[in-house]
What does this fold into?
Amino acid sequence: MSTTPERPSAPGPLLDVRDLHVEFHTRDGVAKAVNGVDYTVSAGETLAVLGESGSGKSVTAQAVMGILDTPPGRIAGGEILFKGRDLLTLGEDERRRIRGAEMAMIFQDALSSLNPVLTVGDQLGEMFTVHQGLSRKDARARAVELMDRVRIPAARERVGQYPHQFSGGMRQRIMIAMALSLEPDLIIADEPTTALDVTVQAQVMDLLAELQRELDMGLILITHDLGVVADVADKIAVMYAGRIVETAPVHDIYKAPAHPYTRGLLESIPRLDQKGRELYAIKGLPPNLLAIPPGCAFNPRCPMAQEVCRRDVPPLYTVDEDRRSACHFWEETLHG
Amino acid sequence: MAEAILEVRDLVKHYPLTKGILFRKQIGAVKAVDGVDLDLAAGETLGIVGESGCGKSTLARMLVHLERPTAGAIRYKGEDITRLSGKALKAVRRNIQMVFQDPYTSLNPRMTVGDIVGEPFEIHPEAAPKGSRRSRVQELLDVVGLNPEYVNRYPHQFSGGQRQRIGIARGLALQPEIIVADEPVSALDVSVQAQVVNLLDALQSEFSLSYVFIAHDLSIVRHISDRVGVMYLGRVVEIGKDAEIYDHPTHPYTQALLSAVPVPDPEAREHRERIILTGDVPSPTDIPSGCRFRTRCWKAQERCAQEVPLLAVPAHLTVVPGPVQHPSACHFAEERHVVPGGEEGPTGGAGARGGKAAEDPGTGDGPEGGTGGGGGAAPG
It folds into this structure.
């Protein structure tokens, strides 16, 4: 086990994102990608961040990791408390020490995230030479251990191979191994299985869940797949146009969504176990982030939209102790 | 079943692998499609599912004659289109059109929407007289739910879902009877997918189209298809009506595939049984002998390495009436209930074996593109 830095004495959440705002300055204007996001993740917990492209789910994660391209990106406000410290007040050197060692990220596309001209062993070993000052030889040995741990067969022989010599599922295992190498407290997985076939996806998700349990890590799973979420998440944050529109424990949200967007998403996916007639389709398109509609950002697509929705931005209403919904009519949605 | 509008018989597509620069010598072949039989009835939707590399896209491209088959026949209304050329081929192609996967790369960025949707009329001028083309294009845009005034816009001015509608309008331009759609919604956001699926449904009834719908998303395929074929390594391993495949699968690969699909219901995760396949799909350059699924199959026995299972109703299942009776290319085909929430079926002792396989995922995985040990675990 690596030496874990001091844990917070108070049993607060591992990660506490508060009122985060991120904007991108583009030629056409300011794109407001994240507009006041709050979420928390505790050790051993899995938070699924669900959203479509442009919802701000990945940008939020990049801000937490500190890998946002600035410029054009800019964190316009908020706090990211990790083990009680606000990451946004730290310098780049300190962020770099945290990145990899205490929090790590798994990306969607393993082939383009791995360096094609370095062997897998070198890339895994780099984590140890850079962060822990291990020798090349020791680092190589640790790389083999890691590959065993993510169940890559014949690890000793394959440690000297290049990324292109591995299949998609195996490459994603290498990404997981790399993220886990320093036994971080928090893992952010951005669409980790989207590029994989279903049978391989199941293998990779099972592995990730198992390792998370073993190491008691917090996991943020960023995805658009409602099926994957139902399989692994403890709680969900649904994002739309840079805001969290609903957050709830996983069982509640599938039973009775409290936001019309969540309900639309759940009703628009075809089911494996039944043959429906027509699918419910959310009308229209996700908004342009350069021109987010006034009031509730979802109002032009919402079947329940009223005057107030076009005028007032809905706050995150408290539905119950651990549920929130940003809909003026959350009660009607929940019971309707 | 209604009369077949399209019959595919023993269709094969091998891409040669060569070695040497001056004296090119064939050293092998990528067997992308390796003996496929299918029938498409008029007005029905045939779904084709399978993982990447199973040959489903190559099959689609052969159906619309973008690839010439190495062997086999594709009969459109009884006529083998693989043997046609010139005028006769052109006439047939008008009736079989394609909708592509990626709405970003399948539309020419330098052409206006009007030119893209109207381009089929340049090739088949008889389909619309010159003067009427613009209004015909506008009609088509209206049919797919786009504003007809957008004819002069360029593809980049549209969202992914709208672009896919443009691709569909282009596919409809020549009033085809058959549309081959290769992953038409997989590049789209969830909320937009449903819009396009509903559009395809509506167009089918409006123009009495027959669809070949190719996708890796099993839920969408079930939603849209009347019949479903499951492909593995260039062959159809199981085919039948949607309920036969989803509620009464008999081929182990279909069962594994269905059981791996995440179900959007958190209640299901505690009591659902998952078959985790070991390893990856073998390389199509080096297909296992006998049954090509045997290297990943928990039921594999000596016979599976020797004897190629044929796609037919398995002999031992012909005595069982009902939905179990459908073609399945497995020597040991037996029903197993894998989709939670669906119709109950016998699960039997097979569950324990699936559980065993789940304990060691990833064993025996081979390098991608390698010709040697292209994946596959030692069973048991």
